[in-house]
Please model this.
Amino acid sequence: MATVFMKWLETTPRDYERGIRLLTLGRLEKLHVLLTEDFIKPGMRVLEIGCGTGALARRMAGKGANVTAVDVSPDMLAEAQRQLDARDLAGSVSFEHMDATLIGERLPVAAFDRIVASLVFSELSPDEQRHVLQNCRWLLAPDGRLLIVDEVPPAGFLQRILFWLVRAPITLLTWILTRTTTRAVRSLEVLLRESRFRPCRLGSRLGGSLVLVEGSPLPEAAPAFDLEQAAIPRLRHRISLRSLLVDLWALFLRVIPPYPKVRPGLYAVGHPDTTSPVFVSGNFDLSVRRLVRELDGKVDAWLLVADSKGINVWCAAGGGYFTADSVIAAVGSSRIESIVQHRHLILPQLCANGVDADRIRGEIGWQTAWGPVRAEDIPSYLAGGKKTDAMRWLRFPLVDRLEMVSATLGLYAIMILIPLLIFWRPLFWPVAISLFGLSYFYGVMLPWLPGRDGLVKSIPLALIALAGLFAYVTLVNPLPPLRLFHWTIGLTGLSVFVAAELQGMSPFMRGEQANWGWELLIGIALGLIYWLVPMAVGWR
Model:
């Protein structure tokens, strides 16, 4: 269950293998040994999907296999190559940068005796899982075998309860650190049967939550895709109790898992046909529903929802979670090419910072266009056949600023106010009022506060907050010097925190992570002032 931390470890490739070994208590390595000893023979042609830093690829190469190892992360592949070069195995392993969903398009048919995937399917959406399994059937040579090592929910009731109880806080922490996570593969054997494999569980560890499963291709070919019988879900704009609850969650708690998201795949809006436009979106629920709201009843279109890890396209593209690979994977797994006559995708303009359109055109032959910034302009964009300057310009009006303040405050209010409520209850309401007041004031006044960085904007914000404090003390309720000093330090620190953290909500400013080092230094400085000044002037 600790393999959910894999997403965090992927951010530090040099520590990945050691971290996975610790987090799985060495059990993953035991399954890798079982796989290698029983199924890998000298001279075999092996494909490893999602090779990471290459530990399993090196182990299989050590048995004499010729290994093609693919992974979507250039950093992980660079570390894998570095470790391979340090050993005498360079001629036995070939590393390739490739998304799992593209193996069927880039690798030769019937070319591998074994296909191995370790902790890969837990990172894929259901449609992507089926697409990859279908490709595996094509790539396996006669009598070839598919071997999957992955995380699954345990079978026993008590084990399952314990699994989810332990996994939930780990999932939350991992998401906070990386803005993504993994999901245990439900019904892995059923998934294999549906994809025309005969499954056989060969081993399990960690209470049945980590398994090794063999898949033998069944002789029957997978059924052909039939457009007339294809059950493509249709999306409509409807206001319901569920949509209102999701909107409420998205308004205040969208950055806290379980964040609302739509299952990746292909959807119909209205009554599209083979000539209808194809729009691409991430799978953040609120983004999809707002897009559908602007399309439903106005445009007949196909909506291709790519896996953006439940994050809006702007943040996901900037964070590396919505990329050309995401779009290419969505095109491949949805089989949209069997439905429409054209090869033209309309992408959100806000994902241009992370999606390489030229790569999409070069690799799968689909032409791309950047749609309007705001979904409300899409009908006019389609009617006019081009994007006007007004459709290109990014706006951040008051209603959007207040919405983003509310969404950001959800997490920070929990982080700050819950500890105060438990340990320092007298401070709860003063800090809560100050936090919410400063945050919404910052949202309202953002365009007029000088500076292009949150730290710079925190200076006038702090001065305004302190001016309000001194006016209150002068006109309403005089405070003793020590208490006034404490309030001055507190409001200054809170102003810095609010302005520095909330800058990430603005599309015109860099992410809040850029300020974390300065925030720490300013916090330490204010802490020292808080303790040393009263002693120096005799207040303590």
Notes: The chain has three domains: 12-217, 227-392, 398-537.
